[in-house]
Amino acid sequence: MDYVIPPAPIPAVPVIGGKDSFPVRRIYCVGRNYAAHAREMGSDPDREPPFFFCKPADAVVPVAPGNTTETAYPSQTANYHHEVELVVAIGRGGRDIGIESANGHVYGYAVGFDMTRRDLQFALRDKGRPWELGKAFDQSAPISPIVPAARIGHPAAGRIWLTVNGVLKQEGDLADLIWSVPETIAHLSKYFELCPGDLIFTGTPEGVGPVVRGDLVAGAVEGIGEISIRIT
Ligand code: MN
């Protein structure tokens, strides 16, 4: 079939240990998933059900290991925030996935930044409006290469951290996720049929804050990877 205009390229993320890439279908994000971050956002961290929002697939910015990738300070914000997150890459789809079988749907893991126009997000939130302008803009999802679960298994613990210009800003542990990866997959798949190519940003630990042009933002999850971006 031919198209009336050129089709957009398929967004893709490199995979560690091979030459092939992971094609991105959708990006789901968990709203808040570490108790201390829920508190700093002004909400009760008790286990109310997780909530989700989306970013467009082409918001991904693949960042090669050991490189610093430049990303643009976005328009229409004066409070641009970093959030470092464990990212889950779905390799096998399904709906109403059980917690016990959820890991079998995971292709691999990565480190990502859920970059956020915090001023817009809060203004929209306070008016009960959708979050897209605050969360779903271009280049809002820098991501490391994906490491296959076949190589590392399914980590339930491990340090996650972020620095700005070498200064530690965010630090937590995957063991502190309010909703574990299997629980998150189980919840999300009640609402959406998950498909191969879906990414899930699993939430950020406490310590989110602003970045400005020129800042070097580095993040990592122990055993999974690290990324570094320069805000330009
Ligand atoms: Mn987030």
Described by strand count, sense and barrel closure, the largest sheet is:
6 strands, mixed
Named once each, the bound ligands are: manganese (II) ion
Order of helices and strands: EEEHEEEEEEEHHEEHEEHEEEE
Mean pLDDT: 96
Strand content: 25-35%
Poorly predicted runs: none
Compute the gyration radius: what is it? Answer: 17 Å
Compute the number of strand runs.
18
Structural class: alpha+beta
Terminal Cα span:
40 Å
Textual characterization of the structure:
- By secondary structure, this protein is of the alpha+beta class.
- It has helices at 35-40, 118-126, 132-135, 149-152, 181-191; strands at residues 12-14, 21-23, 27-30, 52-55, 60-62, 69-71, 80-82, 84-90, 106-113, 116-117, 141-143, 147-148, 159-164, 167-173, 199-201, 209-210, 216-221, 225-231.
- Strands 4-3-15-8-9-12 form a 6-stranded mixed sheet.
- A hairpin with a 2-residue loop joins strand 13 and strand 14 (167-173).
- The protein is globular.
- The chain starts with 11 loop residues before the first strand and ends with a strand.
- The model has no long low-confidence stretch (mean pLDDT 96).
Q: What's the short version?
A:
Helices cover 15% and strands 33% of the residues.
Question: Which keywords apply here?
Answer:
232 residues, alpha+beta, six-stranded mixed β-sheet, five-stranded mixed β-sheet, 5 helices, 15% helix, binds manganese (II) ion
Task: Summarize the SSE layout with pairings.
Layout: E1 12-14, E2 21-23, E3 27-30, H1 35-40, E4 52-55, E5 60-62, E6 69-71, E7 80-82, E8 84-90, E9 106-113, E10 116-117, H2 118-126, H3 132-135, E11 141-143, E12 147-148, H4 149-152, E13 159-164, E14 167-173, H5 181-191, E15 199-201, E16 209-210, E17 216-221, E18 225-231
Parallel strand pairs: 3-15, 5-11, 6-18
Antiparallel strand pairs: 1-2, 3-4, 7-10, 7-16, 8-9, 8-15, 9-12, 13-14, 13-17, 17-18
